[in-house]
Amino acid sequence: MGKYLIRRLLQVIPVLFIISFVVFCLVFVAGDPVALMLPEDASQEDIELLRESLGLNEPFHIQYFTYMLGLVQLDFGDSFRYNQSALPIVLERLPATLELAIAAMIIAIVIAIPFGIWSATKKNSPVDFLATGGAVLWKAMPNFWLGIMLILLFSVTLGWFPVSGRGDLSHLVLPAITLGTGIAAEMTRLIRSSMLEILNQDYIRTAKSKGIRNFFVINKHAFRNALIPVVTITALQTSTLVGGTLVTETVFSWPGLGQLLIQAVNTRDMAIVQASVFVIAFIVILMNLIADILYKILDPRIKY
Q1: Rg of the chain in Å (alpha carbons)
Q2: What is the dihedral of CA 51, 54, 60, 66, to 10 degrees?
Q3: What is the distance between the alpha carbons of residues 274 and 71, in angstroms, rounded to a whole number?
Q4: What is the tally of helices (H) and strands (E) in the chain?
Q5: What is the arithmetic mean of pLDDT over 184-204?
Q6: Over the chain, what is the mean pLDDT?
Q7: Is 234 exposed, middle or buried (0-12, 13-18, 19+ CB in 10 A)?
Q8: pTM score
Q9: Check: CATH 1.10.3720.10 for 93-298?
Q10: Which residues, including other chains, have CB under 8 Å from residue 41's CB and lie 6 or more apart?
Q11: CATH 1.10.3720.10 domain residues, the chain
Q12: 261 vs 41, more confident
């Protein structure tokens, strides 16, 4: 296990470099940000001077080499919008995004586990059809539409929750529900299918034949063995969470990394874009590594 973790950690380095190269290429072909940094009446001489000071007049390989020199020092350059280093700005917004993502994942787990187990144990019953049908419906709803509908109902009409912004717990409820319901739908279907497979195993029938109460058979024997695919999808949903925050944070004006990234793309603030993507990629890789560790905890028979 220790050797495997070391090997996986070493694999993170080339993956991050590949991601950084792809992001740099996309930024390079995205256009010249100088036009947005100067007033409309700026002369061509001023434009060229600024391009030269930023190193944008250098060829691709020179710019990439300079970028990589900064990357190994975790220096993504200065944001022209905020006039300071990009990485501290990104890290300052990260807690808000993590807060929203964790709250959304908690909501997803609280919804998915009971409904998934209930649906599996009541196969082909009205409860099963309600759970599976609801999961399909929630999965089909776009985040931005659901967020707007929740704002119209609970904020504008009923006045129960704030419309936007970040503050106390009431500000977190609607964005977390918006982000968590789609994940809950997918997890519910996965838990149901995993539980149905486990409930047909011989050791489950043996446990029932010994007179063990159905509650303990389901929650102690069946559910634990059904958790491995759930852990997998939870780790994979990290990227979905991050992608969902881009939309959800914009709808609810949540001051997180997603909103910062959207604003940086619109203003071509490439230092912020590069730092944001790098941080997001690192979080996704880290979550997959944590999932591998959890596999071993849940099932000691797994060997790496």
Answers
A1: 24
A2: 170
A3: 10
A4: 13, 2
A5: 80
A6: 79
A7: buried
A8: 0.77
A9: yes
A10: none
A11: 93-298
A12: 261
